[in-house]
Design goal:
Order of helices and strands: EHEHEHEHEHEHEHEEEEHEHEHEH
Number of strands: 14
Distance between the termini: 38 Å
Helix content: 25-40%
CATH class of the largest domain: Alpha Beta
Largest sheet: 7 strands, parallel
Radius of gyration: 21 Å
Number of domains: 2
CATH topology of the largest domain: Rossmann fold
Strand content: 15-25%
Strand order of the largest sheet: 8-9-7-6-12-13-14
Length: 361
């Protein structure tokens, strides 16, 4: 396979050099150019036709937010990865960039003075995203990058008392699309793991709260789950749900990462399977990796079902593809159909069922 070509855009000479050096050691990736601002970057995109662009947010002449909006006018599918600072301002700008069409983001090293540590941090975050967004795997892997989809699971309608959602790359916009299709009087609570660092998850919850008719908050330990409310796992903490008598409460902890993630979808889904035993609905949206597959196995074993986003509408079909490939999905749906499908399943057993009602299709 040809190498993945990358254009690095950042006003800092140090960061441009750092990112270039971090990527150049990968045999399947090459940096074809750099740019100090968005204006220069737009010209180089047309000139170099890169496969991926890494884009700083704060730059002179043309900043990252303006640049991503300009890129999307002419290059709708070009993967763009934002470089962000781990701060309130950086998080808010990153979420705005994702809403404007950015594919994903990474956080800048906190201490660029430590070159070795900074390069390791950049490589660890950036390389998997570049490969995932280009549909590639590491050169040493011989396995297929596209899971084989086996038959999905079906059956008669069943009661749903909780919606549990997992997502990663491309997830913020996908989750926004789904939640804005759900009514304020949704009769079940929603719990969500979106792979994000601290600070970002709180800002994301606030953004979702403004965009949807549901009440969205970042989860706090010990919260009682309420219908029509959405609970986002905070960055760097696993989220679980546990029954206490007739109530279900959140539990946060900093246990070991799973699938290299904390929060992890697997951790949440396992707790949901144990707490709800057949009356939960899992939903896995776009994201790289396989987080959520083992948790979906637990949901299925306890009688619950899982819907996943289809490949065509996913930014990266890693997480949903792994579940579909294992035959654990009740349905594989395009993003614009997921909200209505979820609502149909939630409300199905809350209205009279006609005799001989068909199974889900």
């Amino acid at each position: 396979m040809p190498q993945i070509s990358v254009l690095v855009v950042d006003d800092s000479v140090v960061i441009r050099r750092l990112v270039t050096d971090a990527l150049q050691v990968e045999p399947d990736i090459r940096v074809v150019g750099t740019a100090p601002n968005g204006k220069v970057a737009l010209a180089k995109i047309d000139q170099l036709a890169p496969d991926v662009v890494t884009l700083d947010i704060e730059m002179p002449e043309m900043d990252g937010l303006t640049t991503i909006r300009e890129i999307r006018k002419t290059h709708a599918k070009l993967p763009v990865i934002m470089f962000s600072t781990l701060s309130v301002a950086g998080g808010a700008a990153t979420l705005e960039a994702l809403a404007s069409g950015a594919s994903d983001y990474v956080t800048k090293p906190a201490n660029v003075g430590s070159v070795r540590e900074s390069m390791a941090s950049v490589r660890e975050q950036l390389v998997p995203r570049i490969r995932a967004l280009c549909g590639r795997r590491a050169p040493t892997s011989r396995s297929s990058s596209r899971p084989v989809v086996t038959a999905t699971r079906s059956g008669p309608p069943q009661r749903v008392d909780l919606l549990a959602v997992g997502c990663s790359t491309g997830g913020p916009e996908a989750l926004t699309t789904v939640l804005t299709q759900l009514p304020a009087d949704l009769p079940v609570p929603v719990v969500v793991v979106q792979h994000m660092p601290p600070v970002f998850t709180r800002l994301f919850a606030e953004r979702l709260d403004r965009a949807s008719r549901l009440t969205v908050t970042e989860a706090v330990d010990g919260m009682t789950l309420r219908p029509g409310h959405v609970y986002i796992a905070p960055g760097d903490h696993h989220l679980e749900v546990h029954r206490q008598g007739t109530l279900t409460r959140t539990r946060l902890h900093d246990g070991p990462p799973e699938c290299f993630c904390r929060p992890a979808v697997d951790v949440l889904f396992r707790s949901v399977a144990a707490a709800y035993r057949g009356s939960a609905l899992g939903l896995v949206l776009t994201g790289m990796g396989q987080d959520g597959k083992r948790g979906s196995e637990s949901l299925h074993e306890n009688g619950s079902r899982v819907i996943v986003q289809d490949e065509a509408t996913s930014v990266v079909w890693g997480m949903p593809g792994a579940i579909a490939g294992a035959g654990l999905a009740e349905a594989v749906l395009p993003l614009d159909q997921i909200g209505s499908a979820v609502l149909e399943r939630i409300t199905a057993m809350r209205r009279p069922q006609p005799a001989g009602a068909p199974a889900w299709r």
